[in-house]
Amino acid sequence: MDKLLIRGGRPLVGEVPISGAKNAALPELCAALLTADPVTLHNVPRLQDVATMLRLIRNMGVQVDRIANPDCSVADAAGIVRLDAGGLSTPEAPYDLVKTMRASVLALGPLLARFGEATVSLPGGCAIGSRPVDQHIKGLQAMGAQIVVEHGYMIARLPQGCTRLRGARITTDMVTVTGTENLLMAATLAEGETVLENAAQEPEVADLAEMLIKMGARIQGHGTSRVRIQGVERLHGCEHAVVADRIEAGTFLCAVAATGGDALLRHGRADHLDAVIDKLRDAGVQVAPEEGGIRVRSPGAAQLKAQGFRTTEYPGFPTDMQAQFMALNVVAQGTATVAETIFENRFMHVNELLRLGAKIQTTDGRVAVIEGLGGAAPTGARLSGATVMATDLRASASLVIAGLVADGETLVDRIYHLDRGYDCMEAKLRGLGANIERIQ
Ligand code: EPZ
Asked: What is the CATH number of domain 3-18+244-439?
């Protein structure tokens, strides 16, 4: 099991390329199932979750070719993937693949829309929460699908004699990112108009819609809470570049803020990170768009002020940035309160940060009060390196940021969690001057 060995205390300086967004690439790979024509996706990040999704759709009989070099070089030559679902034979997503990645549920809408049937394993829960898919099911049923859950599988089909889903007005009970994406993809081939109320506004949803429009879909309002889709008979192929990953960019912003330094995040989209950048500026970090990317300068965490925040749906503060910003608060000055409103168990990084010497108190697993060590620095208490364990994707990133600041060596174990969602993170951090290496 791979580990990351980090020797803290180095500022991060230089340039780093931000890869394509995991949470856009995953639905966009599934969008290729909607057409018999070839689809080419550019800027596909080299991630474990992407590899899992490619295995899943290959398993269905889709022709998949990775065109660029798959090795973990930091070069911009990001992954290009060519998909041809013309020969798709098995509209199924089996348990052994779905259990490792919940986003496999994104195959449900496209398979149902194109083939009129789909068998997709119910995704189990995961470390950060139960994560049901009841809204995906409810929405597809509103579009005419008959879905039964048997032996842990969602078995979906169209009513006898029906050849297409039918458009509907759907209001989800809460904002759901992949729920919106599943229904959006299904609606592109439905008969008539679908209106998604309470739709997720994340940039990854808007990027998926842009790709679907290139395929011939008729969509308005994507990126807002009301999306209108006029169904069409069929979609054709397209070429599309995956939007830059705002969570990877936000993670690097927090890392440079914490260690101090001066870096250019190439391809990063500052306009997708307003809530995070506002908080970083309030903390005392300089952040601004520059050369098609984001410039970040920081005097180091001990000079920064810890910031309170609540996670909410986009465009609010993203839950996927909560753990990383908490690591920054841990080493900044002052006390801050963090509230996690989206997932019920997304504080697993707290216990590991405590092992490094952080001062955090949590109540009911949804609110954490952080007493920043910055005030005591440079004489007082600081984080001290230790062996810590990654528990989920963003918690891993939080531990890496803490390790970059802690005195001495930090060994982050179980970094397969990190590899799910970060493209060559240690190589990118080394490129900024960090002392970090992967050990088996
Ligand atoms: C997406 O997950 C992201 N994953 C997550 O990123 C992200 O944390 C999450 O959105 C919130 O922004 C992908 O896009 C692949 P939701 P998703 O449906 O779609 C409840 C990362 O770190 N809910 O928006 O699964 C749910 O339990 C990952 O990159 C239902 O109750 O999240 C949660 O409390 C982690 N029923 C809330 O809604 C449903 O049918 C939001 O979940 C669907 C969701």
From this structure: 3.65.10.10
- Position in ligand 1 atom list of the atom nearest CA 342: 34
Please tell me the pTM assigned to this model.
0.96
Residue 224 CB neighbours (<10 A): 11
Tracing tokens 């608060």 back to the chain, one arrives at 329
398 CB under 6 A from ligand 1?
no
Name the region of 226 (left: φ>0; alpha: ψ -120 to 50; beta: rest).
beta
Name the 3-class secondary structure at 79: strand
Identify whether the C-beta of residue 285 lies closer than 8 Å to the C-beta of residue 257: yes
The answer as to CATH 3.30.70.3270 being correct for domain 22-241 is no
Cis peptide before 11 (omega within 30 of 0): no
Helix (H) or strand (E) holding 185: helix 177-187
DSSP 382: -
Query: Separation of 354 CA from ligand 1 center, angstroms?
Result: 27
Catalytic residue, from 126, 238, 254, 424: name it: 126
Residues 139-195 have pLDDT tens digits of 999 999 999 999 989 999 999 999 999 999 999 999 999 999 999 999 999 999 999
DSSP state of 7: E
Question: Structural domain boundaries of the chain?
Answer: 3-18+244-439, 22-241
Which ligand 1 atom lies nearest to the CA of residue 135? 40
Residue 60 CB–ligand 1 contact under 6 Å:
no
CA of 382 from ligand 1 middle (Å) equals 34
Spacing, Cα 229 to ligand 1 middle (Å) = 22
Instruction: State yes or no: is 126 an active-site residue.
Output: yes
Whether the domain at 3-18+244-439 and the domain at 22-241 fall into the same CATH topology: yes
Ligand 1 site, residue 394, Cβ cutoff 6 A: yes
**Structure confidence at residue 71 (pLDDT):** 57
